[in-house]
Amino acid sequence: MNNTKRSAGATSLVPARDAPQVLRRRSRRHRLAPWAFMAPALLMFTTFLLIPIVYAIWLSLRANRRIGGGILSKLTEVFVGLENYGRALGDPILYGALGRMLIYGLLVVPTMLGLALMFALLLDLPRVRLRTATRISIFLPYAVPGVIASLLWGFLYLPRVSPIRAAFEAVNLTPPDFFTSTSVFFSVANIAVWGGTGFNMIIMYTALRSIPAELYDAARLDGCGELQIAWRIKVPLLFPAVVMTFIFSMIATLQVFNEPQTLTPLTNVISSTWMPMQKIYTDAFVLNDIYSAAATSVMFALVTLVLSLGVLTLLQRRAFGEDR
Amino acid sequence: MGLGQGDLLDNADGPHEAVNVHSRAQPGVPTLSRLFDLNEERELMHRRLAFTVAGVFLATSALAACTSSGDGATPSDGASTTAAGDADAPATLDFWTWTTNIEQVIDIWNKENPTQQVNVDRQAQGDELITRLLTAEKAGNAPCLMHTEYQALPVLVSNGVAADLTADVADIRSAFPDGAWGLTSFGDQVFAIPQDVGPMMLYYREDLFNQLGLTVPTTWDEFAALAAEVRQKSPTQYLTTFSAGDPGWFAGLSEQAGANWWTPEGNSWKVSIDDPATQKVATFWGDLVKSDLVDSQPMYTPEWNAAMNDGTLLAWPSAVWGAGVLEGVAPDTAGKWRAVPMPQWSAGDNVTGYWGGSGTAMSASCKYPAQAMKFMTWLNTSPEALAGLVTISGVYPAATAGQTGPALAAPPKMMPNQPDFFAQASEIASSARGFTWGPNVNVTYQSYVDEFQKAIQDGSPFADALTRMQDTTVTDLTRQGFDVVSGS
Q1: Closest CA of chain B from A269, distance in Å
Q2: Would you kindly state where each structural domain of chain A is located, as residue ranges?
Q3: Quick one: which of A260, B48, B476, B486 has the fewest CB in 10 Å?
């Protein structure tokens, strides 16, 4: 861009020795233009993301301490360095929560993405009836807020109010217990899968619809059946969409909160620190220790960032490199 | 900014979630049933916001704007002075409260005192209100008048939010039983006027007791034997449930047994949550739970509602406001319940504890302390306000006069079979003992939930859970910088 300007200025009206000055003036104006366009976004970004992050980091270095004597002496905010980080890193409760999150993620992510992929491929088959209605009904649970979904499922899980249990008993089968220390993982994961499959299916389905139909025609001419088309053409071409949904699901897993938090008061199995986000929440708003919560949040945000970038880098060549 | 902060928090996260962690001060319906029962207002609901990492950042950003480096008044400021100023001078007072229909009670005051108007602001309830009060105080715009549960008051005091009222309440001390003052005092300093109390009493299903041929227990030994009898006579039913979700309930049971979880000793806090009295309570319930003689599902869940309705649970150690809860969760059982004094640890004793209850506090930064004090006194001791609290707000007043007035002549809706319900309640209330709440009850309560949930899950001894509760509490107090004397 600069090059074209320079040649225009140099060849016509302006004497050669003034050229740099004009150039500077013009390019300054041009350099400002993108900033002006970006200003609203930058302002929002700074106000609602950058400053809060900096403030969270600031808070994470502080703590409430008693200053002066007496049984009711006032708590004062003081600087404590990395103490909050040290305590968070040495807290077995946090590691317990992280372990449970891992189990939960291993249950949710493959199941949800597998189902989403399956539904998307099925819907993309030629001559599918009620395509739109089916798509909407699979997507619909995503429109139900996580808290409401968890309440609904909570009612289905609790033995005395559960129609599932009643159904089992009606045919003389032993009803499942949804809230044992093992089954609770499946119970919570089920809510997430129920709510998230539709969303991921739509992403994959949209990607499928953008694959040129000629590819299928060519494949059919070569003698591919629908299954082979799905496996050899659709799935490889869907890979970028799958990677994207994988990263979304991974981040959602790191941040899982609504479902377990809603179920916490219903059962003894889910503690208030069952998942990492619940622990942060409990620290900040039940124990009134926003400082520890800030330290854990900062560390967690870093882990999320590193994990996301790592996964992206790892999968990028495979997923997006084929176009190059 | 205090209001703005609250709004921002509200808007940031969409649907709220209800979490019942702490005790209820008020006749309370469970949070979940509340979501499906819009008419039911008599509840202390702990609504929690659903936070993601971004949400936490957003929230802290909101707090950022509210933080000021200046210190508020320290709680010990003016320890022995009365509220300064002319109590009859014009003033506008803000009152953050969640008491049901309190506006109608305050209307009486506002009509009588045209120059001293009180504005009710329903910011939040229970612990959420405490969080907001702490933030508002930092921002320098805390309301003059604050509604607080007794166990949350120390948090307000140690954060410098609540003013010392010791000298101001000298004239009205006789209006309340000593036990009630114990709920709002630390050492000899008083920080709130008691508003309502929840002396514990035992509710049981009279019809089912008759049907199964059960005798009402008067001691805990009889209670345990009865629990076994119920299981033997009707394996699908339980006498009651032990709830790991209600620390306030367990605290009340411990008060009855003679526990003193926190005691100020000179400049130190003595913490004895695992004292023999509480150990006795924990072991008693632990044994019942372990041998499946009582249920162990938490209270205030759809599950519990169903069990209270369909007769799966036969009895409920609750508080005087329990009748209101029953109305919310088991309306079909009206007239089938009866309330009696709690079972005793020694035959012939007559003592109970408190479950919940709340008081009115004044902020240290209040510009009209004299007027605020005048209003608080009126609200909690005057006959007209007490009658209003009973009939309009449905609370059981802490003031002695409030427990015997004509407003309490008729029994609660759920107890038509017990016309002398409130007369009995008053008698029970006079036998209630509380203990001093320490500055980190929130930590202790959370620890109760965590540890007892785990103990029920693992089948490990309740006494060990109690020991960990003690350790968590002491560790936290020490970390905050308080001097702590541990022991029983």
Answers
A1: 7
A2: 2-60, 91-323
A3: B486
